[in-house]
Amino acid sequence: MTSSAAAPAPSDAPAGLSAPPSSRDAADGTPLVVVLAGGLSHERDVSLRSGRRVAEALRSTGLEVVLHDVDADLLAFLRETRPDVVWPLLHGASGEDGSVRDVLDMLGLPYVGTGPRASRVVWNKPISKAVLLEAGLATPDYVTLPQSLFRDLGAQPVLDTMVRRLGLPLVVKPTEGGSALGVTVVTRAEHLPRAMVECFAYGETALIERAVTGVELAVSVIEGPQGPEALPAVEIVADGGYDYAARYVAGETEFFSPARLTADQAAQVADVAVRAHEALHLRHLSRTDLILDGAGTAHVLEVNVAPGMTEMSLLPQAVAASGHDLAGLYRRIVDTALARAR
């Protein structure tokens, strides 16, 4: 089955975020969920779209939901309302690096998703790759180089050494960040300097990986009563790479949900995603991006603790392929967070 949906034009303004309720009637026992969306990262627009969709879905299940930006009013609002659960749907720095989750822990508020320490491990791609390798999972060979090293040693000698070590093609990406911002696939050595410049526009340190070819897949994991469960894999077919436009502009990418895999392959990638979720000590939900090569090896590219929830995002497509009701599954995630808090 092929899945594709048109996305609304992104908005820079926090228009559409729900105003906080003037008062809260807790007598009826309805849990209050605060969905955090927006922030100031490069992925603000994606976060706003994710937040709105999740808030609408949760409201349809009977929950009281407030959508709030990450701004100077947030802490006072959280202290005053004391929501039952917070769902951080923030992408990029602060949303995924554990800092907002640290603040929620300091406030003593339950929330959906992974805790701050494990979030920091996942946010730093080289560290998370080391954890995955230690757990026996495959991930593309790589080196990590800061921008300062190129100044100290000279850019060309470093690039030449890198190509001799890893070969071509290569994937250059920031060590921190998401939505493929600053990511370039390099097939010719003379294109490396430009790729490094684009990468360093999003961070001081670059992760350079050996490119792996094969079927590009995303496997979402949701924690259920029996532990982490993998949803059906979603296959991604994008001309020119799965970049920012391919992720969020309708028509740029073809998705197959479930992926066109044999039963054994589907079971294999599901197992890899669950093992990655457990090795990194993730909680409630995650998404593992990987490539299944021609030899049958599943190479983990990265793991996401705050998967996108937009019209074109991969986790909602996986939910649809699984036959679950999207709003019902989001409610189950909230209920899991509530149960753990109690």
Description:
This protein is an alpha+beta fold. The chain has three domains: 107 residues, 3-Layer(aba) Sandwich (Rossmann fold), CATH 3.40.50; 130 residues, D-amino Acid Aminotransferase, Chain A, domain 1; 69 residues, 2-Layer Sandwich (Dna Ligase, domain 1), CATH 3.30.1490.20. The chain has twelve helices and 14 strands. Strands 1, 9, 10, 11, 12, 13 and 14 form a seven-stranded antiparallel sheet that branches. Strand 9 and strand 10 form a beta hairpin. The radius of gyration is 20 Å and the shape is globular. The N terminus is likely disordered.
Question: Which descriptors would you attach to this protein?
Answer:
nucleotide-binding; Rossmann fold; Dna Ligase, domain 1; D-amino Acid Aminotransferase, Chain A, domain 1; ligase; 12 helices; alpha+beta; globular; cell wall biogenesis/degradation
Helix content: 25-40%
The CATH architecture of the largest domain comes to 2-Layer Sandwich
Annotated CATH topology of the largest domain: D-amino Acid Aminotransferase, Chain A, domain 1
Characterize the overall form.
globular
Main sheet overview: 7 strands, antiparallel
**In total, how many domains does the architecture comprise?**
3
Low-confidence stretches: 1-16, 18-23, 242-248
Strand content: 15-25%
Assign the CATH superfamily of the largest domain. ATP-grasp fold, B domain
Task: State mean pLDDT (0 to 100 scale).
Answer: 88
- How much is the radius of gyration in Å? 20 Å
What is the CATH class of the largest domain? Alpha Beta
End-to-end separation: 40 Å
Structural class based on helices, strands and sheet pairing: alpha+beta
Query: What is the ordering of alpha helices and beta strands?
Result: EEHEHEHHHEHHEEHEEEEHEHEEHH
Q: Quickly count the helices.
A: 12
Care to count the β-strands?
14
